[in-house]
Amino acid sequence: MGSDSDFPVMAESIGILKKFDIPFEVFVASAHRSPAKTTGIAAGAREKGIHVLIAGAGHAAHLAGVMAAHTCLPVIGVPIDSSSLNGFDALLSTVQMPPGVPVATMAVGKSGARNAGILAVQILALANSELEAKLQAFKNEMALDVDRKDKKLREHQ
Amino acid sequence: MGSDSDFPVMAESIGILKKFDIPFEVFVASAHRSPAKTTGIAAGAREKGIHVLIAGAGHAAHLAGVMAAHTCLPVIGVPIDSSSLNGFDALLSTVQMPPGVPVATMAVGKSGARNAGILAVQILALANSELEAKLQAFKNEMALDVDRKDKKLREHQ
Amino acid sequence: MGSDSDFPVMAESIGILKKFDIPFEVFVASAHRSPAKTTGIAAGAREKGIHVLIAGAGHAAHLAGVMAAHTCLPVIGVPIDSSSLNGFDALLSTVQMPPGVPVATMAVGKSGARNAGILAVQILALANSELEAKLQAFKNEMALDVDRKDKKLREHQ
Amino acid sequence: MGSDSDFPVMAESIGILKKFDIPFEVFVASAHRSPAKTTGIAAGAREKGIHVLIAGAGHAAHLAGVMAAHTCLPVIGVPIDSSSLNGFDALLSTVQMPPGVPVATMAVGKSGARNAGILAVQILALANSELEAKLQAFKNEMALDVDRKDKKLREHQ
Amino acid sequence: MGSDSDFPVMAESIGILKKFDIPFEVFVASAHRSPAKTTGIAAGAREKGIHVLIAGAGHAAHLAGVMAAHTCLPVIGVPIDSSSLNGFDALLSTVQMPPGVPVATMAVGKSGARNAGILAVQILALANSELEAKLQAFKNEMALDVDRKDKKLREHQ
Amino acid sequence: MGSDSDFPVMAESIGILKKFDIPFEVFVASAHRSPAKTTGIAAGAREKGIHVLIAGAGHAAHLAGVMAAHTCLPVIGVPIDSSSLNGFDALLSTVQMPPGVPVATMAVGKSGARNAGILAVQILALANSELEAKLQAFKNEMALDVDRKDKKLREHQ
Amino acid sequence: MGSDSDFPVMAESIGILKKFDIPFEVFVASAHRSPAKTTGIAAGAREKGIHVLIAGAGHAAHLAGVMAAHTCLPVIGVPIDSSSLNGFDALLSTVQMPPGVPVATMAVGKSGARNAGILAVQILALANSELEAKLQAFKNEMALDVDRKDKKLREHQ
Amino acid sequence: MGSDSDFPVMAESIGILKKFDIPFEVFVASAHRSPAKTTGIAAGAREKGIHVLIAGAGHAAHLAGVMAAHTCLPVIGVPIDSSSLNGFDALLSTVQMPPGVPVATMAVGKSGARNAGILAVQILALANSELEAKLQAFKNEMALDVDRKDKKLREHQ
Fold first, then answer.
1. ipTM
2. Of E45, G85, E154, E12, nearest to A84 (Cα)?
3. How would DSSP label each residue in A24-65?
4. CB distance C119–D132 less than 8 Å?
């Protein structure tokens, strides 16, 4: 994440990774204020055995793009709403990558951070059938959860 | 893709997949006009041995989201600029997925379609070291290509 | 509605339906988290004797469009402001339907939910002269209510 | 429609109505330049046996809203992209109706005009089982058309 | 104004009119909920000796445009931020009038309402030299007020 | 106007003024490139017998605001679409004036320029009953013109 | 700054200038309410020995542009979010300057104000090697600060 | 510039630098496709005797921000309209820099590129009185040019 103030948002990604028992590492590294650290993390990730990078940042959010420039690993970007422009700046800065260097962009904010974790798990599950089964169970559980809320709402009406 | 009129855009994805010798299948399937076909493709993809889905659509682009709802495989979304709103509608309809069902969203249009292909290769390369080497070569080639253009521009100035 | 958190908004639709003594059923069903349930409701609505569907959802709001894909009944969409983007995402995701599958889109939020109820009544009133008379009375009452507020404001100035 | 220059867009609605053998009447009537005519059409529609109104207009598109203010019939609004703002002005002016007076808003431009026709048919089909059967056939035909395009595209690849 | 809830904004216009001793009348009249009243006020304004109309409304703000359609008097529009879209809807609905029927549009909200009052005074001052002198004094006073704030800020720094 | 390239747009204002036999003067004066000239025109307008100022400009359109800062006469602003941003920049730069200094803002482009001329006539007509009669005739003619177009369209259908 | 209410934002610029021991002067001067003062400050700045101007304003923020029109010194613009439009109006009014008169535009709000101070220091440092060293130290300190936050976050996880 | 396709836009900057006899160097260097080259140029600029950097890029334009992260020199950013989003993406990606790392952002496209050149000259002129005199002459010439266009337009009317 680009700043420690982004933690409450990115905690959503962490929650998912913990839920699926995926080992992970968390960094605060700014594309602009600590560029050497940022590119170092991206460039060294493959060798450290990292498979997927998740980058959350606000404003003119370059973090995901800068990381993607320094690695061939999949990079997931989470735009964070931390300026007055409601996250439109972070969204466009993350998603509108020029041809050649993709960033898998999620929704702005907590929904996006949560989905970043899930997408990472989906990618890892391609080579891990146990994880795949957990994902399927997670998907089923979501549908059941909607059912429970449906039932509860209809009972109380 | 949601319509055959999206082909000129989605051909960018196909070009990348061919370049990396990735076997792929192309469908025209609309989330709204042929929903059964669409959900069938998504739900059956895993069993057919498909690893990654790429969905390109315009307007209120639901294609990627609907596919993601029916599979645990990674789904990559390409918003296509096919209404008067310059692709803002397709972008927001693709990227702003609610928590639980991620779509890896790319830039609007051809850049995004090209990057969708590259992201798919990045994901597949996690379990394929030959592909990984090709990706690294592709990345190096991009840098050299910028160098060539740089040199050419400076010579002609 | 796509989530039980949308209830405070969609309660506006319910209020109108109750006021006009229209029998109705409420569901929580997500286009993404419980797609089978959602398409089942839409596909089975005609046979259950339902005449109009109202779908309220936020983010990349696909609920109304997905329902419209599975029924020939009129579908009314209510975009809900539940992300940082002020409802622009839900509005464009609901209204910009591709040709062939309409969604009758209302304003973002409570105004839209209230109007969804009224539009449903207008549609039902086409075949029900008693309902038509009630609608006309409702319209007259709105004008009188503006008059009352006008009078009150002018007295207190 | 608000201007005869809107005809190429609104012809899409007309095409659908003709296809389904729905009798219809076409007017050019501006909410701003010929307000008396406009409100007259709306106010008198019920008595003339009209069941649904479709209003297409550009700029600050008030046509649908003004008609809706003068009738209890369902009013469908088609925003038209006729200013430099790509139809954002017409869309917001049509869809963001205040509580009490709904306009069933369609997508900007030709897609929306076509869907306006279909929504009108869906509303009329509630009391006309023949029309309902035609609609279902139309929906099936759309899915088959996607299939044909799918097949054709895949053959030529 | 279109609703009594717009009063806190429109009070800014009233404050200016009082400050310049301009006689005025206040109405609550909705373009959509009480259209007859609204067009009646506009159509009868000239005969009542009214010179300028100020219309403040939110959402798809048609009030100013509808009044302008029924009078040759200058109509000033104040877009009010009363939906989730931050006033973009009211602004575009008020300002993007089609050719033939102008609305003199002000900024969204209180700034705009205040300026609506000032513009009305500017128009009336064209035929009233006393008012013109007051306006000039008001303009000078604004500059002095900035000076005072400047001085105060610099002293306290 | 801020640039001679704005002439094709501002010619719409001129056309209206000529039609109503209003004497007028045209200037090219930039708020940024020739500020002294611009403020000179605004500050001296009253003494020259000018009653209304119309300012058309593109990009960050400051022309109308700068003129309004230097005069108590009514200033009408016409945003012109001359950048890649479709006139959103010129519109917001013209309409969002801070409290104290109004600009009567019109729609972006030719519609707005035409309406600027009409608003100027409306203002002048307050003290000129002959002009008032002409305006009423113009309004009636617009309604008739819509009728003619309506008739023609319906005949040819 | 255009208003004393902008002080909490512009204090960020002041903080930076103080930190780097840059002498500075603060003015409240409105492009619209006190135009003579504003242009006087800009026109006289060079002679007073001022090297860089920073202008912060909201709404249709003309302050920076108007100053730039009256000086050849670099002008830095800070858009301030003081209307309902989240600063989009101030941003576009500041950045979209027509060719010939640049404004060095910063992000909306406090981030932008802080960066305006830093850019001013960067410009001054071109002719001041002591300042240049301080800037480099500041840059290094930012990277260390990110490191400290990184370490702290990782310890507490 | 980020791509050789940006040359027609950035040629505007070059034209200004040539006009003022400022020595300059042109690079094609992408923040994403050739990041090492890009950061190398930025990091080495100071030592090469470069005083100001101008970076033009489209899409999620990170070029200016990445360069600013690697140097204490002033960096001027030119957003380029090269996606379907009309340059909104490049503008927000360039201007919304987080606190600590400013980018002096210009208007989208050719106007901005031209102004980038002028701003660079303004910065250099602070330590070069000959350049300062040339700038003043350039400013005077712009005003005269407006005068000439004004005269010409008025003669031909």
1. 0.97
2. G85
3. -------TTTSHHHHHHHHHHHTTTT---EEEEEESS--HHH
4. no
Give the model's confidence band at B156: pLDDT under 50 very low, under 70 low, under 90 confident, else very high: confident
Contacts of C126 (CB under 8 A, 6+ apart): C132, D51, D73, D74, D123, D126, D127
pLDDT at E80: 98
Return the closest-CA partner of residue E23 out of E59, E65, E57, E51: E51
Cβ distance D26 to F146 less than 8 Å, yes or no, reads no
Left (φ > 0), alpha (ψ -120 to 50) or beta: where does H147 sit?
Answer: alpha
Name which of A21, A85, A26 is nearest A56 in CA terms.
Answer: A26
Chain-centroid distance, C-alpha B101: 17
D146's tokens: 């996607």
CA dist G13 and C152 (Å) reads 49
- Residue labelled with tokens 């076909």: B37
Measured at the alpha carbon of residue D98, what is the angle toward residues F150 and B84, in degrees to the nearest 5?
55
Indicate if the pLDDT at residue H35 is higher than 90: yes
Please answer yes or no on whether B93 and C93 come within 8 Å at the CB atom. yes
Q: How far apart are alpha carbons H120 and H118 in whole angstroms?
A: 5
C147 contacts E37? CB cut-off 8 A: yes
Q: What is the pLDDT of residue G156?
A: 78
| In the predicted structure, residue A43 carries a pLDDT above the cut 90 | yes
Q: Is there a contact between E26 and C88 if contact means CB atoms under 8 Å apart?
A: no
- Is residue A97 within 8 A of residue B115, CB to CB? The reply is yes
For an interface test with A, the pick among H92, H101, H108 (most A C-beta atoms closer than 10 Å) comes out as H92
Distance between CA E90 and CA E106 in Å, rounded?
11
Torsions phi, psi of C12, nearest 5? -65, -40
Half-sphere exposure of E44 (CA within 13 A, CB side): 7
The terminus-to-terminus CA distance of chain E in angstroms comes to 43
Most E CBs within 10 A among C91, C145, C146, hence the mutation to make, goes to: C146
Alpha-carbon gap, residue A85 to A61, rounded angstroms? 13
Question: Which alpha helices (DSSP H) does chain F contain, by range?
Answer: 7-19, 35-45, 63-69, 88-95, 110-125, 129-155
- Rounded to an integer, the average pLDDT of A67-84 is 97
- Candidates D80, D149, D156: best to mutate against B (most CBs of B within 10 A) is D149
G71-130 per-position pLDDT tens digit? 999 999 999 999 999 999 999 999 999 999 999 999 999 999 999 999 999 999 999 999
Contact across the interface for E59 and C111, Cβ inside 8 Å: yes
Which amino acid, one-letter code, is at F5? Answer: S
| B156 interaction partners in chain H (CB closer than 8 Å) | none
Residues 6+ apart with CB under 8 A from G126: G132, H51, H73, H74, H123, H126, H127
Q: Which residues of F touch H146 (CB under 8 A)?
A: 3, 28-30, 33-34, 37
**What CA–CA distances, in Å, run from C102 to C73, D77, D106?**
10, 12, 7
As beta bridge partners, residue H80 has: H58
